[in-house]
Amino acid sequence: MAVWFSASAVVPALKAQMALDDATASLFTSAVQLGFVVGTLTSAVFGLADRLDPRRFFMGAALVAALANAAIMLFEPTSPAVIALRFVTGACMAGVYPVGMKLATTWAKGDMGLMVGLLVGAVTLGSASPHLFNALGGIDWRFTLTAASISALVAAVAIRFAGIGPNIGRSPPFNPRLALRAWAAPASRLANFGYLGHMWELYAMWAWIGTFFAASFGERMAGDRAASWAALATFATVGAGALGCIVGGAMADRVGRTTVTIVAMAVSGTCALVVGFFYGGAPWALIALCLVWGVAVVADSAQFSASIAELSERELVGTALTVQTSLGFLLTLLTVHLIPPLVEAVGWRYTFIALVPGPALGVLAMWRLRGRPEAVRIAGGRR
Question: Do the Cβ atoms of 225 and 329 come closer than 8 Å?
Answer without folding.
Answer: no
